[in-house]
Design goal:
Blueprint (H helix, E strand, L loop, with lengths): L9 E11 L6 E8 L3 E6 L11 E5 L3 E15 L2 E10 L2 H14 L1 H25 L1
Antiparallel strand pairs: 1-2, 1-4, 2-3, 3-6, 4-5, 5-6
């Protein structure tokens, strides 16, 4: 399957706490992956899609986001509810915070991503030369 995302997705599988607008108590969840364009989270609770229009996410005391998103896909696996979210409200400082968090904690994924592109570019060029 070809990747259609413009921004790379980083697999992080980190515990977090989600606080919805007017929420009294934070909801434990896992951030499975994140990018500058959205994220995939999983949690035990089943939530209405509308709660993601305005929420806060605290990730490992290193990343605190106040964003809005729309649910682009939702599924249930085992006893977990999984939400694929696309940010529709995120400021530049939050994007920078995500970028810095990934650079600090998941550097090996960045390196693999760079090398993958280099290898793919070389493979395409080699394939084109072989066709001539």
């Amino acid at each position: 399957m070809d990747e259609r995302r413009i921004k790379p997705r980083w697999l992080i599988n980190q515990r977090a706490e989600l606080t919805v607008e007017n929420g009294v108590r934070a909801i434990p969840c896992f951030v499975e992956d994140i990018s500058l364009g959205g994220m995939r989270i999983s949690l035990v609770r089943d939530l209405f899609d509308e709660v993601f229009l305005n929420f806060k996410l605290d990730l490992a005391d290193e990343l605190k986001l106040n964003v809005g998103a729309q649910v682009v896909r939702r599924e249930q696996q085992y006893e977990r509810n999984i939400y694929a979210l696309s940010f529709n409200r995120i400021d530049d400082s939050a994007k920078e915070d995500i970028d810095q968090y990934i650079k600090r904690n998941f550097r090996e994924q960045i390196v693999r991503h760079w090398w993958k592109e280099e290898i793919n570019d070389g493979t395409q060029e080699f394939d084109q030369m072989a066709d001539k």
